[in-house]
Amino acid sequence: MTYHKMRNNKLGPRVVKALKERRFEAWYCEEKEDAAVLALSLIPKNDIVSWGGSLTVAGLGIPERLVSDGVAVLDRDKAAGPEEKHEIMRKAFSCDTYLTGANAVSEDGQLVNIDRIGNRIAALLYGPKQVVVISGMNKVVKTLDDAITRARTVAAPLNTQRFPQLRIPCSGTGACADCRFPDSVCSHIVITRLCYPEGRIKVILVGEDLGF
Ligand code: SF4
């Protein structure tokens, strides 16, 4: 076992405990395959499921597995054009289960997310009956301030490397310049301090590096 894994296996359950104290449901999975199986087990067969743009959710192959299991999904990437895409994004607010990653998690159990449009964060806050957040332990940092810093200076500039067409400083430099450009991916920065209603947000921490 690597030192990395040894550390994650010790810290992960502690963060799970902190999340539960904030009324999230929470689990720690050492391996990503276990996390995918757990996430799928949390979704009732008759649910309508959607998800936000998340490398973690995609990397676990969950969308494909839902489709092959015959689960009804709202997948904006299957839209024929921009109008249909936004229609699917709006419908996602009333789905049963919404899947997303997290940009940062503090050791005391708070989630921090950053978003350009805000659809992913909006669904996290209200709408879908339940939200399943899957996060690699690479997102876990010590304090809430560290989590905000991570979201802004690590997650966002990494994420923008996927979109070289955006006219923003971090796309070219790799560093956040606290921009206010129209293309900025940092319109909304949200702290989820407590889960309300209790248990609506389910957090699966994974003892591996996943996503940004
Ligand atoms: S430079 Fe702008 S878009 Fe890039 S991370 Fe900073 S605020 Fe966000």
Commentary on this structure:
38% of the residues lie in helices and 21% in strands. It has 212 residues and is α/β, with parallel strands linked by helices. The protein has a six-stranded parallel sheet with strand order 1-10-7-4-2-3, sandwiched between helices. The chain has a four-stranded mixed sheet with strand order 8-5-6-9, sandwiched between helices. A hairpin with a 4-residue loop joins strand 5 (104-106) and strand 6 (111-115). The mean pLDDT is 96. Bound molecules: iron/sulfur cluster (SF4). Iron/sulfur cluster binds next to helix 7 and helix 8.
Core attributes:
8 helices; globular; binds iron/sulfur cluster; 212 residues; alpha/beta; 4-stranded mixed sheet; 38% helix; Rossmann fold; single chain
Oligomer: single chain
Number of domains: 1
Query: Strand fraction band?
Result: 15-25%
What would you call the shape? Answer: globular
The run of helices and strands is: HEHEHHEHEEEHEEHHEE
Radius of gyration: 17 Å
Biggest sheet details: 6 strands, parallel
- What's the helix count? 8
